[in-house]
Amino acid sequence: MKSITVQHYDAFSQTAGKGNPAGIVFHADDLTEEEMQEIALKVGFNETAFPLKSEAADFKIRYFTPGHEINLCGHATIAAVYALKRNGCLGTKTDITIETKAGILSVKVKDERFITMQQAAPRFEAFKGSTAGLAASIGLTEEDIDPRLPILYGSTGTWTLLVPIKKLDAFPNMKPDNVRFPAVLKEKPASSIHSFCLETYDLHAHMHARHFSSPFSGTTEDAVTGTAAGVMGAYYADYIHNPFKGSLHLTVEQGQEMGKDGRVMVDVIKKENSYDIEITGTAVYVKDFDIFLEEEKLNSPA
To answer: What is the pLDDT of residues 73-119, one digit of tens each?
Structure first.
């Protein structure tokens, strides 16, 4: 058996046990995709990130849920860059680039804990399915969904369905039936569901959210979701703060229903017909732990 050391960080919080856990695996360049997937499955967090060498950027990062690889993950990026800084891999650099399957993105280390990452340009597509069926898939009724705002698929690197909810008191009642999602989300069956409202627990926050995972990811709910918060910034500019000119600075709260209270700061800057989206968050180191792979798998071809 081969021992693989995983560093556990919690992102979007400065308190261990809050925010969103991510596994970070260093020295991963010799691991195959199959092995990375097995590691992510055994770690069991919503995402495990693998910082790698890159010829196109300072680092390459690959992201795996327990079920499959994804193009980009906000909280795992925040955790990975903080881990790179903490482990001395950045030297004196405060501005770096990362190669991801969503493109090459810039990341800034503002101090020891605050990490700002660029996200891909926001994209939206219409949801044409049943609103009643959608509500039922997360344990609500159609009356809980806010008809004043559109239900849209959105992406700044990973697709999610943005679902506006009328009242904050509906959120503790949500019970996702993730297995039903592909039948409801016919346009994008692998999408997650990101429910949000404009009422918040924290008076300084602008939006509250819960994020329910694609059934193909092997998880049920994400505690605090960076990519979804980023695309919500563009949604906010288009549909809530419209007409929008210049820039916005938003705070999104998430994780309260899971006991994982976290915050994502989102900056939206107008750019011709689109937006520049950046998210900022903190991270905290929790612990190292080991998982084990069979030697023959490690030595098998990719």
So the answer is: 999 999 999 999 999 999 999 999 999 999 999 999 987 779 999 99
Q: How far apart are CA 56 and CA 38, in angstroms?
A: 27
Domain total of the chain: 2
| Active-site position among 35, 38, 47, 278 | 47
* Structural domain of 165: 123-280
User: Under a CB-based contact definition with an 8 Å cutoff, are residues 237 and 274 in contact?
Assistant: no
User: Kind of pairing, strands 69-70 and 192-197?
Assistant: unpaired
Look at residues 247, 222, 266 and name the one whose alpha carbon lies nearest to residue 118.
266
108 and 163 within one domain: no
Distance from the Cα of residue 2 to its chain's centroid = 30
Instruction: Give the pLDDT confidence of 155-212 residue by residue, as tens digits.
Output: 999 999 999 999 999 999 999 999 999 999 999 999 999 999 999 999 999 999 999 9
Using the structure block, give the residue that is written with the tokens 């929790």: 286
b/e map of 150-174 (b: 16 or more CB within 10 Å)? ebbbbbbbbbbbbbbbbeeebbeeb
Residue 270 tokens read as 């107008």
Domain containing 169 — which CATH number? 3.10.310.10
Tell me the whole-structure pTM to 2 decimals: 0.93
Beta-bridge partners for 247: 269
- In this predicted structure, what is the pLDDT of residue 88? 95
* Known catalytic residue at 47: yes
Contact 122, 274 (CB under 8 A): yes
Residue 270 shares a structural domain with residue 132: yes
**Could you give the CA distance from residue 67 to residue 100 in angstroms, rounded to a whole number?**
18
Q: H helices of 3-69, where?
A: 33-43
Residues 74 and 47 in one domain: yes
| pLDDT at position 111 | 77
